[in-house]
Amino acid sequence: MAEVFLRRLTRWQAEAQREAMADLYVEAYREPSGEEFRERGAFLRRFAEHVQRPGFEMVIASDPALVGCAYGFPAERDARWWQEINGRVPHELEELTASGRVFVVAELMVLPAHRRGHVATRLQESLLLRSTATLVVTFVDTANGAARSAVRAWGWRLAGQLRRSDDGEPELEAWSRGPAH
Fold this sequence. Notes:
The chain is α+β, with helices and mostly antiparallel strands. The chain has a single domain, classed as Gcn5-related N-acetyltransferase (GNAT) (Aminopeptidase, 3-Layer(aba) Sandwich), CATH 3.40.630. It has helices at residues 11-16, 18-28, 40-51, 91-98, 119-128, 145-153, and strands at residues 5-9, 57-62, 66-74, 85-86, 102-110, 135-141, 157-162, 172-177. An 8-stranded mixed β-sheet has the order 1-2-3-5-6-8-7-4, sandwiched between helices. Strand 2 and strand 3 (66-74) form a beta hairpin. Helix 2 packs across helix 3 (40-51).
């Protein structure tokens, strides 16, 4: 396997790479049977929204072909996303969000052939390297045991579970860790 290199993209470079990101998304989450696990169009809509968020950061991994990426942004200060978590949200989490000290890792994906080679670990670390956030949050599909094991191994703590949406999206767990460095 070729050596994997990481590179940080600007918001504009990320937007220019949106089709490649969608292709990566589909391949990274493809079912073993070959069926698409997640819908490309839904990813493109989310990505278009995410890339416009203030403070958007993105890191890609390539060998030289694209093999993975991680991106995120500071959480919106109104803390409305905490409202979707089942159970009581600790007051400290709401305070950190309101003060702009929470960074959301919105996506971390690696092609199956490059998993278990520390690519995801390197992407996560590189993405968070410049962050001054006190707390980092990510969301993991409850059915994705490998991702849940990875965030647990990286020292993340389960913060809560998001309610199942009406549109059939999978239930998500919110995981957090701090500080970002």
